[in-house]
Queue: 2 jobs
Job 1
Amino acid sequence: MERIQVALIGAGRMGQVHGPNAAAHPGLRLRYVIDPRDEAAAALAARLGAEAATLDAALADPEIRGVLVCSSTDQHLAHALAAVAAGKAVFCEKPIDLDLDKARAAAPQFAGARFLLGFNRRFDPHFQALKQRLDEGAIGALESLHIINHDPAAPPPGFVPTSGGLFKDFTIHDLDLARWLLGEEPVKLYATASCLVDPEIGRQGDVDTARTVLATASGRLCVISNTRRSGCGYDQRIEAFGARGMLCAGNPGLDTVQMLDASGVHAAPIHPGFASRYALAYARQLGHFADVLHGRADAAVGYADGLAALALAEACADSLRRGHAVAL
Amino acid sequence: MERIQVALIGAGRMGQVHGPNAAAHPGLRLRYVIDPRDEAAAALAARLGAEAATLDAALADPEIRGVLVCSSTDQHLAHALAAVAAGKAVFCEKPIDLDLDKARAAAPQFAGARFLLGFNRRFDPHFQALKQRLDEGAIGALESLHIINHDPAAPPPGFVPTSGGLFKDFTIHDLDLARWLLGEEPVKLYATASCLVDPEIGRQGDVDTARTVLATASGRLCVISNTRRSGCGYDQRIEAFGARGMLCAGNPGLDTVQMLDASGVHAAPIHPGFASRYALAYARQLGHFADVLHGRADAAVGYADGLAALALAEACADSLRRGHAVAL
Amino acid sequence: MERIQVALIGAGRMGQVHGPNAAAHPGLRLRYVIDPRDEAAAALAARLGAEAATLDAALADPEIRGVLVCSSTDQHLAHALAAVAAGKAVFCEKPIDLDLDKARAAAPQFAGARFLLGFNRRFDPHFQALKQRLDEGAIGALESLHIINHDPAAPPPGFVPTSGGLFKDFTIHDLDLARWLLGEEPVKLYATASCLVDPEIGRQGDVDTARTVLATASGRLCVISNTRRSGCGYDQRIEAFGARGMLCAGNPGLDTVQMLDASGVHAAPIHPGFASRYALAYARQLGHFADVLHGRADAAVGYADGLAALALAEACADSLRRGHAVAL
Amino acid sequence: MERIQVALIGAGRMGQVHGPNAAAHPGLRLRYVIDPRDEAAAALAARLGAEAATLDAALADPEIRGVLVCSSTDQHLAHALAAVAAGKAVFCEKPIDLDLDKARAAAPQFAGARFLLGFNRRFDPHFQALKQRLDEGAIGALESLHIINHDPAAPPPGFVPTSGGLFKDFTIHDLDLARWLLGEEPVKLYATASCLVDPEIGRQGDVDTARTVLATASGRLCVISNTRRSGCGYDQRIEAFGARGMLCAGNPGLDTVQMLDASGVHAAPIHPGFASRYALAYARQLGHFADVLHGRADAAVGYADGLAALALAEACADSLRRGHAVAL
């Protein structure tokens, strides 16, 4: 298999997730790592058998056919636009941008581009298995949905101001899952939330515990449950209720060992965070991007999906602010 | 142990649940069965070693110290009032009444009465185990709650008009559980619902699929999930999320047998309906009423609890009608 | 339904299990309780609405049509014989006797008698569900079997000398299950055992930890695992392996609550002992005896089954003594 | 991290497992692939960025510091000896050889060598978690053990004659696990077996369904359960019973999705075979070999472990042949 050359923009947290997957993929060659912090770029490049480069140089190299945008959120859109303008296929971490108007305004420039947005959960094998059985009709017509997305522990101080807030930063994953699974667009939404985990989050104007209810035109209902701190690990589940039964994708445990003693039955914790829980999803997502580059697939999650999820996230914030349901 | 004599009003569905438990309890003697349908009263009385009687006769008998009100919903309040007026302790099936104003107006007449309302789920051993661990602080302070209450199959035609609607008939159980577990009264509520199970239910003005979100003054959140038809049995679960972890009360299976073959791992269905799922809860509830009669306990669920749940059910209907959240 | 009168011999541990089930059964009337300890007989009789009596009086009463033999093990055979001689149907606790020769010699006197031997595990709903699926061919032809029977805690001092030893007292249940499930008689057997739980058991000449392997003529294999002290409750499981898959009957938990915290996933203990674990099996076993008395069923476990299990238990002890496999 | 160069002998089934793990390991560089079938060597080398070579050339290259012996079983010993003689560290697939005498005779030549034998199950994360909790004393002193090793489907015709038979080919894994977990050497062993899966296996003089019971000097007992065809996938479990409870390592499912419908609760199959089930174990095993090469660890499984397991496998065959227990 030909190894198509790609460049990685961003040597931070997500670059360190996607870079190794690109380097290990038999159909890709990670050629450049770009980061304004020279040392970070050089270190990650060395680790992955790539070379540090400037953005301009990487985009000017005709051998580079794909770009992984893993820069800071406020740079996603600019970097994606530059890569698209240079004729590259783009994998872009979510969200496209925190500003819906800005993201909408840029949409025309992505027309026709090969663009994959990083909603990794669509590539999780457990969630994909649920989706497949749903599509096969295992439980008949879908009627309602529960999406549980609970982070293990509160984010560090200073995270909130640049995060876009709970809905745009965190719930957005679930809003995308809801769109993916419901098979219809939501037409109405109600979000309510509290600050129970850390009062500092509240002081910075955000919430940490939320419930959102979506309804589609045909009456399908979806509840999204979010908290910033579960106390028991990274709780990631989906329950789908249909006319003939239900499907649940549960939390994989860290191992299968059970210990029985006089006090009960004890099993391993669930995954401690996104890195291990979604390791396989990230690898499969990158594999899908390789398929896009090799012309074997169209991008499963496009720019329009990013806009739609962002619009729903804004609507959640709006519902919370106004204290009641909003029509979409 | 002395066997205190009790009378049962109603030989229908719920009378056939509570009557046998009263007859089998070592501290009770089921003496009379009262039902306007003479044959039904006689048949149940014969089966349980009791005798058919009129309401007046039973209430006039000084040996009778407790009355089980299992008549039709529209008779609950009148029968409970009559029994209280006769100085009897009363166990009354839920709901007290479908009319909140009427129920409120009657409240003073229950002051000082020994009155146990039939919210059976508070007596379920699984839910009690969850409550106990919550109260012991196993997961720290409670922050949010999911209550799943899904009926196995749609009710028969003709049920809807006299039922009071989904919220007063069905969700009311969950509203009581929410009050029991949250440790605070809800101050705000949003309900949304659809008719997805049976269009006939919609034609009769009711809904069959609903999600309700409650919030308390301190910001605790509770989601109630209801459907009239799960397709997979009687799905009855509670998930409680706290500062240090979570507690889940799941669905007990019909047996523990697992079958593994080439297609996967297969286990028995969950319970098919309320009668088997809550058999032990009903027996323990009746045992609690026996304790009340013997002076060993105060009624754990009183008239005020019935009023509070009914008020919340009305608020759900109000929220649905108005399309947005309501303050309580 | 007619209530057929029965007498209970033995007000001890097993009498207190079977007596209440007989008293509560709608097709039986527990009339007499017989025990050489007058007070014990009187107390149990009073509690169950029966009367204390002598064995002779009970057997002479033509109204008594069934007898429950729950006396001490060394009296089982004599009491069963007396009851059969008096024309009564007999439910007899296991084992028939600890002396195989004596039990064999008595066999002709049970010819034609209605005799149900108390191998309660055949009436456990979990094991029955496994048996039913096996018989339905869910896993194809049975090839091998694991039976796990682990007691929660070592027996009290003084128990061993009259118990008959681990194999006749404890493994005998599993030997009966093996015969029930294998569908063929074992033709070869190997037992090995240790004293690991309590050295006092070893001093009294018994063992507390054992593994037994049975083979049938067609080559089906069965392993029986026994220990006198599991440390985690009453571990009672069956695994059946067939040509197309496997069936496992697991340990029901005390409740369905799971607690997740940072240390893992925690569930309730398994049952602490036989009384609660097999409560339903005992009730169903008594129900089956009622069916026998009412002429609705033939006894599912007969005298020959008792002899066969006892012979296998002797063969286990023989194999252990000789240190190698024995042909049957 | 320096990438130490290694050579792979054997481009067949196991070479295709270990080769990619060596190629992907950050501390190793897979330099040569050796196989008498030139095309196979070339194809695997090309896929893994290595080059095809002769054994002599590879062993003569001073840059090669480690050798992976994945040739056919009858070549394991010769290849391992050649590599050791050339001063290389050796990873050798199990078994060392099918001939115990031959393997014993060669033992002195491995004195002082860095030699890791491929008992992959010791590196499985589930079994390692069980071992760790056992070593931590979670269930007190170990008393007995069940090892379940059931292959998914019967081997192809022609496999049996060169396999060494069930015990040396298959049970040998479990005998090694038993030694690893028991903490004592077995002193007595009994094996019984049947041919139930495929009569052709019997015609070729082998068995396909077996149970083996081991006992140690202190009385610890271990049962090994084997079949060549489970009908439900690759059933790989361990149960350890101690003074204060039990530990079970179960079968990880292919995903966490549960489907509930009217017929029951349905989950994904267990793993279909060794490749996916032990993928992580193989990677960790290779990682351990890298640690040995880097001087960070001594080989966890040595030549003596191979001899010991092989001796036990021979004893199993001996016990089966003689029909009774054998002392070791």
Job 2
Amino acid sequence: MNQDYIQAHPWSIIEQGFDKEQVKSSESLFSIGNGAMGQRANFEEHYSGETFQGSYIAGVYYPDKTRVGWWKNGYPEYFAKVLNAPNWIGINVFVDGMPLDLNTCKTVNDFKRELNMKEGWYQRSFSAVLPNEVEIKAKITRFLSLDIDEVGAIRMELSPVNQDAEITFEPYLDSGITNEDTNWDDKFWNTTGVQVKNNRAFIEAHTMKTNFATCTFMQAQAGYNGKELDAHPDKKTDTRVSLQFKQNVAKGEHVSLTKYGGYTVSRNHDPSELVKVANTSLDKASELGFDALLKMQKEAWAKIWEMSDITITGDVKAQQGIRFNIFQLNQTYLGRDSRLNIGPKGFTGEKYGGSTYWDTEAYCLPFYMATKGPEVAWSLLEYRYNHLQKAIENAQKLGFTNGAALYPMVTMNGEECHNEWEITFEEIHRNGAIAFAIYNYVRFTGDYSYVPEMGLEVLIGIARFWNQRVNFSEAKQKYVMLGVTGPNEYENNVNNNWYSNYMAKWCIEYALENIEKINNEYPEDYKRIMGKTNLSASETEAWKKVVDQMYFPYSEEHQVFLQQDGFLDKELIKVDALAKSERPINQKWSWDRILRSPYIKQADVLQGFYFFEDHFTEEELEKHFDFYEPFTVHESSLSPCVHSIQAAKLGRMEQAYTFYLRTSRLDLDDYNKEVEEGLHITSMAGTWLSIVEGFGGLRVKDGELQYSPQIPQEWESYSFKINFRNQIVTITVEEGKSSFEITGSNELGIKVDGKSITLVPGKVVTA
Amino acid sequence: MNQDYIQAHPWSIIEQGFDKEQVKSSESLFSIGNGAMGQRANFEEHYSGETFQGSYIAGVYYPDKTRVGWWKNGYPEYFAKVLNAPNWIGINVFVDGMPLDLNTCKTVNDFKRELNMKEGWYQRSFSAVLPNEVEIKAKITRFLSLDIDEVGAIRMELSPVNQDAEITFEPYLDSGITNEDTNWDDKFWNTTGVQVKNNRAFIEAHTMKTNFATCTFMQAQAGYNGKELDAHPDKKTDTRVSLQFKQNVAKGEHVSLTKYGGYTVSRNHDPSELVKVANTSLDKASELGFDALLKMQKEAWAKIWEMSDITITGDVKAQQGIRFNIFQLNQTYLGRDSRLNIGPKGFTGEKYGGSTYWDTEAYCLPFYMATKGPEVAWSLLEYRYNHLQKAIENAQKLGFTNGAALYPMVTMNGEECHNEWEITFEEIHRNGAIAFAIYNYVRFTGDYSYVPEMGLEVLIGIARFWNQRVNFSEAKQKYVMLGVTGPNEYENNVNNNWYSNYMAKWCIEYALENIEKINNEYPEDYKRIMGKTNLSASETEAWKKVVDQMYFPYSEEHQVFLQQDGFLDKELIKVDALAKSERPINQKWSWDRILRSPYIKQADVLQGFYFFEDHFTEEELEKHFDFYEPFTVHESSLSPCVHSIQAAKLGRMEQAYTFYLRTSRLDLDDYNKEVEEGLHITSMAGTWLSIVEGFGGLRVKDGELQYSPQIPQEWESYSFKINFRNQIVTITVEEGKSSFEITGSNELGIKVDGKSITLVPGKVVTA
């Protein structure tokens, strides 16, 4: 843990007291989003201290050109960057002509931030003495509407404490912004028009290269003692426009400004109509008014929580942690737009670029599937189906043929945009996660229709890739896979990474199984797909050979599969023998040192045991867990959750809880000293998994929900819901007792600790 | 071979006929240099066609900042670029006001380029019809003086063929130049002053960041019918200055312009005196005059050839090839300045950046040692001694301690400036070449004094590095070296690269041996060095363990050492089974495909057999050669020479000759389709080695020269000289007969095919 200034509270994230050192960190933690746009918790008024400005529009990116590996072929031409978008939140404030700037105020008292997760709003309040001795009390409330998702609303209330004062609001828009992260210091935005009309303003700007046209808009109104103030257009430059409201405010009285703003984008509208659509959105928002909009916001969030909340009693920090994770996942992706996906930083920062990693399939899908329903999960699968052609082209660039598909490591639009050879070209296990998600979807939802409709083509492309990617080793008389990077990115270009080999074998088997099934059960689809893919019998025969003769490195001595060839040649010093000063090794060690060390960034062999739990005995799991976990530094946010689930399965609740803490409050407590760069959104789904699959022991087997509930001794009880095939099952777990409830009108058979139980609507069943 | 337009000639490189497609290629091939500066064969007059402008000043570079591997620690901050320097050669020409531009002329006849290697000058002549129908005959001669190495001279002679014409010369200087290769489109030069004085002009400019101050200067004079023309200052901008000479020239008459130009640099002079020093140089040059300077040039080159020429009779292309290589090596490095080194492209292009690779120690040192003498070789060793502290710091950045030294992969000033992790951090075998060069120097020169004076400190730093870089494998009960890139860069991050392991073991042994020797024979030096390095007995004990228990991968089946762990898992398809369309693989295949293929870029195991020939039997060499060569694509220019030497040793002269051809005319015939980017300077030393060590079978053993001469059947005879311990030994080889001569006053015992012979000055001995 690197910070502990966030106050424990079951429903809110709260900071009290002004600490300049925490500003960037809090800007991440108090970020808000509504799936369509997002906003770091930057101050509305000017702040001259250290800050990381970030306003983001879903799906709007810039392809920053890459320049690496100039003598290595196959790199993508660009690295898609999440873009800092024009600023719509800005409201400069002047008090008797003196700018309000918390960095230069004489004192800042009663500073408080609250992110109310239950209702979906963010509020900041303080009392500050300006250099001109005027003391000002302020309260600013902000939210991004879930109902009108192009609009955000801000209410700023100010009151002079110690004397009368002239207060000036200057709400503004600004497209002269920069990105923290740029390779070539390119200009990312081109502004084409700046307009003011009464109390509204509009900036039209498009991204360079990708040419996303946007209109950033605002409307501002100010009131004092029940009367509305006049808006004066203030300054207008090529990239900035502001309005001005001025009022002499009596000591103790309040003046307030309400600002609506946001973006209309050519992704959703005709580019020539952006200003018009912006006006319509502003009409809607202002007709409703701030309070009605906020009321709708509360109702919308209530609906989300109704389905996705996890309650924990007896441990308020754990309660806060899990809700923070669930809240952020919902701020990032709502499943409304199948062109969107779940970026690793969501709308809270720029790092990593791109929006879609294997995180989506490996970690996020189960969360959205169980808390939202099958149609959102379908959207996520469809996203990959829509990118299949690009995945085939991507594989072609690397020399693969015949419809082999390699999904990108990172993407915005289906094209690869990561640019390190050891990842882009070699971290190919990602392909397996795409196939596994299809399997997982069918297993959970019982809906097979995706496979004949779209999924089988994806599975065939993936199987073709693996079949071409392995080669037969005369020395081993087995198929081997050379030159890969596994999920543990602290190894590069290794041979026979067990996870990748296992995934390859499984993907081919799963494709074969589904080809067979669709041939038998969906003859029309079968004909169509075979025609489209040109799959031949000799091809599938070759696949079967790979399945039968795949090589898996194994240590007889340790009775474990080896993460890769040669793993045992390393200096096998366990993590607990490493000095604290050496960690995190990714900040302290050079890359070659990390590579030749035994240290594991995130679950690798164990990730395979997680996905394919049923293929191994609990004894085998234990052996592998005990062999690998001691070498695991968990420097990926995706690592602790898998270990937490497996520790729980092994009945090691204390260890499971330790891992859980690390994932659930990773950002709140800033374990990796980087929260100021943004939040770890995708790993938040892992936290959810830790409770649901770890403590709750939830599995779906043979079309049936199975639980084996346990509870950390630190908790009194916890409870979560699952949308299982359109019935909502709620489990509440206490020490020694779990109770179940079900909605709807049908009974549902489940298993608890291996015992069958029937749930009847309207009745609480205790096990 | 990708081109064959260069005419065969024993002493000159000749192109006839104007082909726009060849311009960039010829700009490389006809480059001139004098060790202090260099110039691609760009036209003096404006050329609107495809061209690659390049003027280079030795030791002047720019640290282009890198942006790769943002999450991988230890990268250097910059990549030193060879810099295109301000243009001093430019002479624009106007004929009746119409610019002479070979790209737009109606016809270009009798176009000829000649690079006279014997005398060290370059000449271009042609007859061109301009768009205004005036036909102009031209002859331009250019050289960079070996005597006044800051000065180059150009004489341009023009004559109207078909009518009288007004001819205008505009000699100019221009610092508004760009680099082909830049990561960030930075501006590399800042111009601070532009001056004209009579017929002289000066541009003062310094490089950004590195702040090398330079004065680019010129003096021009023109003559017609014995009378000197007046110089008119023409235009002057912030980065350009020109003079103007105008003359009405009668049909058939000649007008000529002589231009002296070049650079004075703060590396050699007080930065405030650069213009003054430039004036002095111009005084010297112009007092001597063009013809006298050219005469001195011929004499200086005659001296170089006297010692370094290799003659071949019966094969003019081979003769031309070897002289081209020797000529370029001498154009690049003369051993006068121990701060300089031998850049892989010399003064002929920008590619690769930096100036010093392991090429210097592994390939170039023997050439300079044998054709120039021990003091030049000492200079090259001293260069590395001077960088020892930086090498220690470089190792520290990667986590090594206690004075371990890792020499950079690429450097200008001792700091690492390459930036690919698999090379920068892992291609550590380079350290071995530095140690081997010390061994080679002592072996060849018999001068041990370098070791106590400087070399032992270097050897200790290197041994320390290897000792820390290996680790003990419990599984193998041996020391292993994980995560390296060997000389074969088509493998990255492999374990137990045989060459690297062998080199490490040898380096430690060689250090131990020299510590012992210096302890016994140079007690004062021993004390000083031990004090400086803090070397302890326990440390050397640890080294001995590594020497005794180093692991070497070996295949019992094939009876060969394996290039690295797992080599036999590859799909072992030989190169001759690869389709032509797939090659060169570094242009056709993605990087991951290359990595998992068995294809070898350049000698790796065989490179070790080359360095440590005496450690292995000829039978072992044969086995390894026959195993590895069929997988070798020789896509490094450094590959064929080693194979040529080894094929010759195995008595396979036909194969040896084939490899020789590939190295000797690599650039002239453009085997790798890239000569337009510049020449492969360092590999030219490999060509020399192919003849001297390959065909001539020269070795130094037990302080004695040993030959085992053979001759390719395509040749009648060949001859080369060796400066062996200050006596010049000349060998002339014909079929079935070799004759030897020696200079000086002492006899010298040598071995020829194992038989001892005594050489007596003044007598030709035949064996």
